[in-house]
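Why should sequence recovery work at all? Because a backbone constrains its sequence more than one might expect. Tight turns favour small or flexible residues, buried strands favour hydrophobic ones, and helices have their own preferences. The token representation captures these environments compactly. In the example below, the structure is given first.
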């Protein structure tokens, strides 16, 4: 454990948090947040979400809603004006978001507050539950935060050899990478590359927080031997040898985002490790074709800086 490395990630998140709190009415420049934190956008947003339990955009929206709830306590402020101040373009959109957060419409919330003031009943709560403990404060004072206390994760640091892979590039939403795997299987199968139990993996290159869904770049990949030619329609991608953080996720693919958030937002800041060059990837030990969703087993690999480069 290196305290200075843990402090680096906490400082990075605190720097970004301060910007969100100070510019609550400003449009978030997510790439600028990452640069100010001295992290790549891809790594920054997973670390931020893992440490605070929310993305920067989710945090901003929640704090705006909490501020709106405080404003609703003032009977003379129009709901439409509060909606626009919270960043919503219509009363209807604001009402939907407010009801999702508070279980009642803005008007119902206001009536409950006024009734509580008259009848000595506890007024409705302004704070929306958040694992970080960060809430809107009208005085704008600095707020502490707590690390997201989500489920613990068993992580191992281990050396990995270079992996030579044959890939199909996928551009678009990550949850549609199965289309690339279908093309990979078809081409690799015809070329005789799929024998025994093949090692299938996905390589992710872009941060979905800062890159439009239509532009997200990833690769469906198959590990191939050095002597195997790469057939037309597939590309070669070599994953570098080095130190990797390894974790096993058991469960639906829909929960992989949360698993990555725990790895990068909880384990990484406490580990004393730094992220290294290269792309994170997943290795699939089974598939929905041969296992129910709750038994799917996926290995997560995060490249780490070499020991000689650690500070």
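From this structural description, the recovered sequence reads:
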């Amino acid at each position: 454990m290196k305290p200075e490395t843990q402090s680096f990630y906490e400082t990075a998140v605190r720097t970004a948090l301060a910007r969100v709190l100070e510019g609550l009415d400003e449009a978030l420049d997510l790439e600028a947040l990452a640069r100010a934190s001295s992290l790549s956008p891809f790594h920054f947003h997973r670390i931020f979400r893992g440490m605070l339990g929310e993305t920067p955009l989710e945090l901003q929206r929640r704090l705006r809603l909490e501020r709106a709830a405080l404003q609703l306590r003032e009977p003379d402020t129009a709901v439409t004006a509060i909606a626009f101040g919270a960043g919503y373009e219509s009363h209807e959109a604001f009402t939907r978001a407010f009801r999702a957060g508070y279980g009642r419409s803005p008007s119902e919330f206001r009536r409950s507050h006024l009734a509580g003031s008259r009848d000595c009943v506890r007024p409705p709560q302004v704070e929306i539950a958040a694992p970080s403990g960060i809430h809107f404060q009208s005085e704008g004072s600095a707020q502490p935060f707590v690390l997201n206390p989500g489920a613990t994760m068993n992580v191992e640091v281990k050396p990995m050899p270079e992996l030579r892979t044959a890939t199909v590039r996928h551009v678009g939403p990550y949850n549609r990478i199965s289309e690339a795997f279908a093309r990979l299987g078809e081409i690799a199968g015809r070329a005789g590359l799929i024998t025994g139990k093949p090692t299938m993996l996905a390589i992710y290159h872009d941060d979905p927080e800062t890159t439009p869904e239509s532009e997200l770049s990833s690769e469906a990949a198959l590990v191939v031997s050095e002597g195997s030619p790469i057939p037309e329609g597939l590309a070669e991608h070599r994953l570098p040898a080095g130190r990797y953080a390894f974790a096993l996720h058991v469960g639906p693919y829909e929960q992989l985002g949360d698993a990555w958030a725990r790895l990068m937002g909880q384990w990484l800041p406490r580990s004393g490790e730094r992220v290294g060059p290269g792309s994170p990837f997943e290795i699939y030990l089974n598939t929905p074709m041969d296992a129910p969703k709750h038994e799917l087993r996926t290995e997560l690999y995060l490249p780490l800086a070499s020991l000689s480069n650690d500070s």
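A few observations help interpret the result. Residues 133 and 287 are 38 Å apart (CA to CA).
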